[in-house]
Design goal:
NADP (chains A, B, C, D), homotetramer, diaminopimelate biosynthesis (chains A, B, C, D), DHDPR_bac (chains A, B, C, D), elongated, lysine biosynthesis (chains A, B, C, D), alpha/beta, six-stranded parallel beta sheet
Chain lengths: 268, 268, 268, 268
Amino acid sequence: MSDVREPQVGTSAESSARPAGEPLRVGVLGARGRMGAEVCRAVDGADDLELVAMVDEGDSLATVSGAGAEVVVDFTNPDAVMDNLHWCLERGINVVVGTSGFTGQRFDRVRGWLSDKPGVGVVIAPNFGIGAVLMMQFAARAARYFESVEIVEQHHPKKLDAPSGTATHTARLIAQARAEAGRGAVPDATKDELPGARGADIDGVRVHAVRAAGLVAHQEVLFGTAGETLTIRHDSYDRASFMPGVLLAVRSVPQRPGLTVGIDALLD
Amino acid sequence: MSDVREPQVGTSAESSARPAGEPLRVGVLGARGRMGAEVCRAVDGADDLELVAMVDEGDSLATVSGAGAEVVVDFTNPDAVMDNLHWCLERGINVVVGTSGFTGQRFDRVRGWLSDKPGVGVVIAPNFGIGAVLMMQFAARAARYFESVEIVEQHHPKKLDAPSGTATHTARLIAQARAEAGRGAVPDATKDELPGARGADIDGVRVHAVRAAGLVAHQEVLFGTAGETLTIRHDSYDRASFMPGVLLAVRSVPQRPGLTVGIDALLD
Amino acid sequence: MSDVREPQVGTSAESSARPAGEPLRVGVLGARGRMGAEVCRAVDGADDLELVAMVDEGDSLATVSGAGAEVVVDFTNPDAVMDNLHWCLERGINVVVGTSGFTGQRFDRVRGWLSDKPGVGVVIAPNFGIGAVLMMQFAARAARYFESVEIVEQHHPKKLDAPSGTATHTARLIAQARAEAGRGAVPDATKDELPGARGADIDGVRVHAVRAAGLVAHQEVLFGTAGETLTIRHDSYDRASFMPGVLLAVRSVPQRPGLTVGIDALLD
Amino acid sequence: MSDVREPQVGTSAESSARPAGEPLRVGVLGARGRMGAEVCRAVDGADDLELVAMVDEGDSLATVSGAGAEVVVDFTNPDAVMDNLHWCLERGINVVVGTSGFTGQRFDRVRGWLSDKPGVGVVIAPNFGIGAVLMMQFAARAARYFESVEIVEQHHPKKLDAPSGTATHTARLIAQARAEAGRGAVPDATKDELPGARGADIDGVRVHAVRAAGLVAHQEVLFGTAGETLTIRHDSYDRASFMPGVLLAVRSVPQRPGLTVGIDALLD
């Protein structure tokens, strides 16, 4: 952790006024949790970022403002995150949120708070994995050009749900892209099926969930048309894989006033 | 096609008496069918084999004996194959059969005919693909060492059954190998499943059937244990892929008196 | 092939004047070649297209104008294609070209001809495979977000060049995207290398060429960053795979006056 | 770790005299090293094994005999392992060795010591990964049936050598199997090669080494013949993957007097 310097009143939210070349000052809430600790390491290891505050349960949020944080990263819990967000926004501090539990109602409350703070940005993302986000973008884009598409996701056998949230979300994006392109049903002549063999049907897209020891989190989207297939595969082994996405959000949020949901919009 | 020479009485079934270095004389029944035509091309292209007879509906079987065939390959149809087999065995000609429709009863009849012909061999195989057979052998062998296993088969969307016969057979071989090794159920914590997501259950092995335009015939068997996975994958694009297995059977059958079912036993 | 009707003077180049709902009238040059014959089948099988002329060596181009073709597809040869193009453009017929041999000089000549025909479009593409084009687009897009990238292409063993033109082109697109994003060299600690093990170096991107019987044309682009990998794979088995791209060009060209090189721009 | 009970004189080496159903008593040398600690956890977690001694630098080997260990697992270092082995064999204790640095000379010395101890077994293995060993066995077995074969290994970018030792060993096994089956050179028409594109040549087998962040240790062996390919892939993420092989060796060694090199022979 970097040393704490005096807060510089008024600068935190005005990114355009930041001295060029100075590292961006970052505070982390939930710093002793698994994701939070990983974020601290990632921020600390980036030349253009400075870790100025590590806060966890029992610590005072004043540490964050006292340290002059320009961006706060929140990986706490659904019960704490709204208060944290409100506190930061009142002080004009940009926020990147990885904590889960966001609903339409919560997004609306955040938008309300932001309407009084025109220069301040918030990025809330359910998944900071750039690879996963690209996989979904590419899948949505390829969907309109291929006759067939199926998803095979593969996870460790302790996973409770099948298919994964990512697979379900991908299937919906694909179904929507097919509909927009005027594509009808995926061809399938199956007459004689052992129950379950053809997977789950999500908006007309078949999704198969493989569970095996040794696996972590993987997904394959297979597109096919006469004579060719296109496969997009994402393999995730480690929560370290979320860090490039978190850092991208940290670097982007001062230039993105208002609420941004998901890191898709940050990728271009 | 090679030219037809005079039949050499008595030599056809006595492979040990064959002049060393002379090509093995092969006749094909169903020579104008898709598989039969492919067999004719494959035999014709092999230095150690000589294509001496091509017979199809309307032709006389006498062509085969007249040409001195030592081995006959039958890719005809279920209605014709038993008569063809009987005719060949009576004349001491070895037979390789790829025609489908064989039941336990039919195997018994062939064994009965063979009991009178101690030097003659018959190989009947449902699948001549060496790759597919090796995939199944390897899967059965690996099954006892891994905690988890699942099968994903992938075929063109005109296929009527799901999963494929090969996948079903592979699952049964794996289940049997696990049982013999005293392995219990594959671990699976799934609590919340969209119907079909976890595939079909064949003797405790989950099997997923993917159908997409652009695919031909593919199968992947995934084994996993803490920290590692082993994947065996077979991709078949073309019936040419069956020819090495047919030629292996043709070359082996003179040395294998009696009935051999499947080409597994020929691989070693 | 559809029946030939009377030419309708003046309508061929004015796509906006086409009666809504009427199929687009298409002529094929090089209709008896392998690609041309495939194009004829594809056009004939599309509800919104009508195959009005099939022309090959020895046939008169007048067939095309006589049949009122609105779009001509040229899969002939480098010696014939420029004359064909000129002939079509003079008559205000849109052209889709799959014939190879185009250079900067040839493109300039086509642009010159088109400058006199403001409503007419030409699409010239080295590769009509939508899957291959998407693979390259996705690879170029992912390139900036990942620390590492390598390409493994796999082809049949009769291929003369290694790596393939597609792999070389993909590597260059990736190298350019990395440079634009300010990414330095791909990390690689290799000290002790058996010559060739690390592949060919194309603008800093390692490319590996696998050659094996049973393969057709395949390419995998692997991106990696700490904890995750993203893989984009394209498998092509058959020239049928180029047809969706050809038909897309046929349908698009009347709405795209001027010269379009590659089908990338048609995909959106 | 289990509690230490009184040594039972004379039973340690006489596995046949072990009370049925009692767990096998295991000691670990190098218990505080990364591999050793993992072995301790694995032994402790197995119902049929009892961890009776954990020894590392500075501890006395007497702990092992004092605890009545029937099998000792050595993951120490090349300088210590020979003394450890000698000490154990003198006391009739079976040994499983994962320490590296074994040469033909060292194997000879171990055989010499064992010649005086007919009932005692030693297993020395360079790699306890069952998945990797099966991959090599399957590759060697498939080699004779396919026209083509190539190896693609994939590792993290901090690896110093390319290709990996496992890939080199696999290539040699394949080359040997092809030679024994009378197979000639792998077909390859490459005329125009960018240096390195076709990989390293190990006894006629092409090997490609991919290095990318996000990867751990992976290997793919691709076999091909007209119309089909067979792929054997091993993915290793974690040293936990070696534990099933270590436990297999521990359970097997009391029934295998003499020296066993590698765990191949234990797999059946």
